[in-house]
Design brief:
The chain is α/β, with parallel strands linked by helices. It has 13 helices and 22 strands.
Length: about 425
Amino acid sequence: MAKRVAVIGGGTSGLTCIKCCLDEGLEPVCFETSDDIGGLWRFKENPDPDRASIYYSLIINTSKEMMCYSDFPIPAHFPNYMHNSLIMDYFRMYAEHFQLKRHIRFQTKVLHITPRPDFPHSGQWDVETESKDGRREKQVFDAVMVCTGHHCHPHLPLKDFPGIDTFKGKFFHSRDYKNPEDWRGKRVVVIGIGNSGGDIAVELSRMAKQVYLSTRKGSWILNRVGDKGVPFDMMFNNRALMWFLGLLPVGYSNKLGENQLNKRFNHKLYGLQPVHRVFSQHPMVNDDLPNRILSGTVSVKPNVQEFRQSSVVFEDGTVEDDIDLVVFATGYTFSFPFLSSHIIPVSKNKVSLYKYVYPPALERPTLAVIGLIQPLGAIMPISEMQARWATRVFKGIKHDLLTSYKYRVILLNHVHYSSIKATVCKFLTLKYHFQNH
């Protein structure tokens, strides 16, 4: 009898998990709380609670050649950088081609995932779910794949902004921003300089009277279009360049990258000079922000110090009056409410997972977290690779590597998804040491 695998979430990672389960002869059952596939990429005017939500104009930051699943290329007539509606079209074609939707139970919430009493021997899990009509059900699964991602709960740190309770304008998290039409002729402050903050500031600047982009630490800005019009990520994310940069001292490789980005525009002159090096944190991908700053429609400001009714005071002492809207592009937090906290402890939005997939404390490798990483590039190929490995472990093919102590010891020391580069370097160094001693 085929092993049954519970897949939690029907988005980017969940779809490829279903596909990989089928490839290995496993029996997947996917639980999706909404009524459709796509997860983060499905635009909704009124977003579901505790879920990320995108704005209408959102375009992906990775070119189609670098984001597609390995066995299902994106159609040639699709543009290199796709609108969110085209990404959903691709997901639907992928799901239809491999007949994935028949394995998804929509509008079903996972309440509890608990190891069975004989878990050290069987590795099985009890999965309790609740359907839309309130009917609860408990099933036994041989393995679980958690695909809920890291965009779960909007992070709205109002306590860090004194006087926000006196603010007379409107404020909301970036997940609630949908389009700029309602803010024509208004004065807007966008707090946060991630990809969402940059996109929203640029889009609003074409409608609003003035947009102020508030940032605590600046950001390096990447352009989608590289040399000679080739997509930037196709030039940068290749093995030869990564191998070369890996040979250089970290400081020197950072200097090379920063000099290249400053050739387009001097980040310091534009008020965007970060306090961090280019390869130490996630950059922003935005083609238009420098142009909007140069035209004055976006003004870069430091962190907000306080709110005074309709005024916003910044840390440099400047005050902007008559502000109509504040958009908090302050990111998301993630959690696993259906799991006991000791199975996957989450601390300060970080989690320790063996190779970013397996909770190291479990006696049996039958629970895999897929897609809980934030790479410089698309998540789709990485989730697919993780799902391939996990399903082969569930099947018993790759169990030897997972249980090998000399590799386990490398990645059990506080690994989290934002330290990929350092961890990979550490892994390769210790692997060489083990092989030669």
